[in-house]
């Protein structure tokens, strides 16, 4: 299923603030919430905002390395859900052909945010984790929390 990052937000919970990336899927109003660490959420937001930094962060460095070696990010797919943890695959085009890497969804989404690579979600994963968008309307954008 074709997908896109709908936003990077922060949920206030009894145990503190928890970042959540909302992944929307074409032709539905539901979203797939993926809870991530603050650093990953900020990396995704920086990618979406095309924010320049004086020194590369980890995702910028990885992308620079892939591109310097003649590769590019082809696609990201969220492929599985195992014991509450999402599984993703990162597809790279390389001079030797296409390569698929096991990856965390947060890292994959950070790279997709930087490159505009297409994002997809397996239907079974979306169906298992989807939530109504209205459940997240009161969340704050991560930029409001970190500024």
Structural class: alpha+beta
Work out the helicity level: 25-40%
The dominant shape is globular
* Total of DSSP H or I helical runs spanning 4+ residues: 5
Entry keywords:
147 residues; alpha+beta; nine-stranded mixed beta sheet; 9 strands; globular; Bifunctional nuclease family protein; Bi_nuclease_dom; BFN_sf; nuclease activity
Task: Kindly describe this structure.
The protein is α+β, with helices and mostly antiparallel strands and 147 residues long. The chain has a single domain (2-146), classed as Roll (Bifunctional nuclease domain). Helices cover 31% and strands 43% of the residues. Strands 1, 2, 3, 4, 5, 6, 7, 8 and 9 form a nine-stranded mixed sheet that branches. A hairpin with a 4-residue loop joins strand 2 (16-25) and strand 3. Helix 1 (38-48) packs parallel to helix 3 (105-115). The longest helix has 11 residues, at 38-48. The protein is globular, with a radius of gyration of 15 Å. The protein starts with a strand and ends with a helix. The model has no long low-confidence stretch (mean pLDDT 94).
Strands, helices and their partners?
Elements: E1 2-13, E2 16-25, E3 30-35, H1 38-48, H2 58-68, E4 72-82, E5 85-94, E6 97-103, H3 105-115, E7 119-121, H4 123-129, E8 131-132, E9 140-141, H5 142-146
Helix pairs in contact: 1-3
